[in-house]
Amino acid sequence: MGSAVGKGGSILDIFSPFHQIHIVMLGLDSAGKTTALYRLKFDQYLNTVPTIGFNCEKIKGQTGKLKGTNFVFWDIGGQDKLRPLWRSYTRCTDGIVFVVDSVDEERMEEAKMELLRTAKSPENASVPFLILANKQDLPGAKDPKEIASLLVLDSLSSGQLWHVQPACAVIGEGLNDGLEILYNMILKSRRMAKQSKRKR
């Protein structure tokens, strides 16, 4: 991402419609990452299979502030054996979407461990997190407040931006709202980084 930005470009240059914003989608297997990705891309439900490796898709923002913005989404498989690879994808990303199955309380502890491990690694200290509380249409789904509590999001550093967005990837509910919030957090994070550079 480096060279063009370093040569006196403004924040507006960085987020011109021609710039691509890199987003990594993480989460345990069966949380609904790939369903969310293809709902965002095609605005329809696609029956997906477990991701072995990753999916990469370019998505153009269609509404509000996102209109015309180019996103590159990396959807990384969530099986146990694939999680060590997450780090190589998050190293230079603009934002992270962490998808959680809002109904699967048994695996919430596992999701918490993986989320905190990713969020607390030094290279992700200033990367905003959108926690997508998926499967809100199912009975027993935890609401965003409960999910924030179960994932112990308050333990993240004060400078780390995060938001829990209720969603249903199958029908697309909450996905565009969440993406717009993530986009705003990315802009804010960039502004904060610029200000702290000026202070040095």
TrEMBL record:
<feature type="binding site">
    <location>
        <begin position="27"/>
        <end position="34"/>
    </location>
    <ligand>
        <name>GTP</name>
    </ligand>
</feature>
<keyword id="KW-0342">GTP-binding</keyword>
<comment type="similarity">
    <text>Belongs to the small GTPase superfamily. Arf family.</text>
</comment>
<keyword id="KW-0479">Metal-binding</keyword>
<dbReference type="InterPro" id="IPR024156">
    <property type="entry name" value="Small_GTPase_ARF"/>
</dbReference>
<feature type="binding site">
    <location>
        <position position="78"/>
    </location>
    <ligand>
        <name>GTP</name>
    </ligand>
</feature>
<dbReference type="InterPro" id="IPR005225">
    <property type="entry name" value="Small_GTP-bd"/>
</dbReference>
<dbReference type="GO" id="GO:0016192">
    <property type="term" value="P:vesicle-mediated transport"/>
</dbReference>
<keyword id="KW-0547">Nucleotide-binding</keyword>
<dbReference type="GO" id="GO:0003924">
    <property type="term" value="F:GTPase activity"/>
</dbReference>
<keyword id="KW-0449">Lipoprotein</keyword>
<dbReference type="Pfam" id="PF00025">
    <property type="entry name" value="Arf"/>
</dbReference>
<keyword id="KW-0519">Myristate</keyword>
<feature type="binding site">
    <location>
        <position position="34"/>
    </location>
    <ligand>
        <name>Mg(2+)</name>
    </ligand>
</feature>
<dbReference type="GO" id="GO:0051649">
    <property type="term" value="P:establishment of localization in cell"/>
</dbReference>
<dbReference type="InterPro" id="IPR006689">
    <property type="entry name" value="Small_GTPase_ARF/SAR"/>
</dbReference>
<protein>
    <recommendedName>
        <fullName>ADP-ribosylation factor-like protein 11</fullName>
    </recommendedName>
</protein>
<keyword id="KW-0460">Magnesium</keyword>
<dbReference type="GO" id="GO:0005525">
    <property type="term" value="F:GTP binding"/>
</dbReference>
<feature type="binding site">
    <location>
        <begin position="134"/>
        <end position="137"/>
    </location>
    <ligand>
        <name>GTP</name>
    </ligand>
</feature>
<feature type="binding site">
    <location>
        <position position="51"/>
    </location>
    <ligand>
        <name>Mg(2+)</name>
    </ligand>
</feature>
<comment type="function">
    <text>May play a role in apoptosis. May act as a tumor suppressor.</text>
</comment>
<dbReference type="GO" id="GO:0046872">
    <property type="term" value="F:metal ion binding"/>
</dbReference>
<dbReference type="InterPro" id="IPR027417">
    <property type="entry name" value="P-loop_NTPase"/>
</dbReference>
